[in-house]
Design a protein that fits this description.
There is one protein chain. This protein has one helix and five strands. The chain is mainly β. The protein has a domain at 2-24 and 55-103. The protein has a five-stranded antiparallel sheet. A hairpin with a 6-residue loop joins strand 1 (2-8) and strand 2. The longest helix has 4 residues, at 40-43.
């Protein structure tokens, strides 16, 4: 697994971008096709053997309101995340989500 991050504007409305990926060196089975390249749903046979699995992702986290006077970047932030992986060996090959985080809103 590897990840790189870039932080920006840490003194005001702080943000961070992360890009990463992973590789699994194990053996996997195809999720749709068997060894004869027929649909598993039709034949009921095990999936075609596959080597390795991998995926990539990107995350952005952006503060949109900062708690006044806070040394650390605390306040209200938005985030988004996107993940992609090969569909032949993963049940979920694309995923995206987002949300809002609140930090430091209550003293102590």
């Amino acid at each position: 697994m590897i990840e790189g991050a870039y932080k920006y504007d840490q003194d005001r409305l702080a943000g961070q971008v992360k890009i990463g990926g992973w590789n699994h060196f194990g053996d996997f089975q195809d999720q749709r096709f068997d060894g004869g390249h027929n649909l598993i749903a039709v034949t009921g046979l095990p999936g075609k053997p596959l080597d390795n699995d991998r995926g990539f992702y990107g995350i952005i986290d952006q503060l949109i309101w900062r708690v006044p006077g806070s040394k650390d970047p605390k306040g209200v932030a938005l985030f988004g995340r996107v993940v992609g992986a090969p569909s032949d060996r993963n049940l979920i090959d694309f995923y995206a989500d987002g949300g809002i985080t609140f930090s430091g809103m209550i003293p102590r």
